[in-house]
């Protein structure tokens, strides 16, 4: 495993922690957008953007939505934008599948909170990387994840493999994760790991913590397998390309 360094302990309350890393060449093979495409790369963690109480309210949105489905394996997703919901070994479109019943599951306040949280995360990322918030666009996929220790049934359940977001999803320039549960209290394992050449840097989730980073190979990462309990998070990602823009759900 090499050397592991903890970037953010669960017990820390971090105002703003930022580590700059040299940018990879991944952005060169995509159209560049002045004032947005990463020139400064790195990773940040903050506990000062979203409150624990807001994180709990958002987790309840995830729990209600995911209670309608769920993967047979250990990783379930719910995408409020596209309506994608894990169900068994497949995905269904939540909005088509449940139709008007959706109004009994999600409220206008839910979507309003989601939008507000998304905007605050976007503003913080823009501030830290010295770019304009209006030059960044919400992009897909943006989704809730629920992970537990159930064995994988399909490749979608294998969330622990190292990957680069810009390679997996060409549209991503900035990735963020809002954690909705606490490492070592709600679940074991499940830490976020940046895999650097010389060592690993881990982030221990805590409800309300936002971890964010530039999406290129400079931030190769993985999530440890969850060994017990349930880990909730939401991935919210941004593109510099207006053609990859999506609206709030």
From TrEMBL:
Keywords attached to this Swiss-Prot or TrEMBL record, sorted alphabetically, are: Dioxygenase, Iron, Metal-binding, Oxidoreductase
The yes or no answer to whether the keyword Lyase is present is: no
Q: Report the cofactors.
A: L-ascorbate
Please indicate if the UniProt record lists Iron as a keyword: yes
Residue limits of the Fe2OG dioxygenase domain?
A: 140-242
> Looking at the UniProt record for this protein, which Gene Ontology cellular component terms does it annotate, in alphabetical order?
membrane
Question: Where exactly are the transmembrane stretches of this chain?
Answer: none
> Which InterPro entries does the record cross-reference, listed alphabetically?
OGFOD3, Oxoglu/Fe-dep_dioxygenase_dom, Pro_4_hyd_alph, Pro_4_hyd_alph_FE2OG_OXY
What molecular function terms (GO) are annotated for this protein? dioxygenase activity; iron ion binding; L-ascorbic acid binding; oxidoreductase activity, acting on paired donors, with incorporation or reduction of molecular oxygen
The entry's protein name is OGFD3 protein
What is the originating organism of this protein?
Cardinalis cardinalis
Gene name tied to this protein? Ogfod3
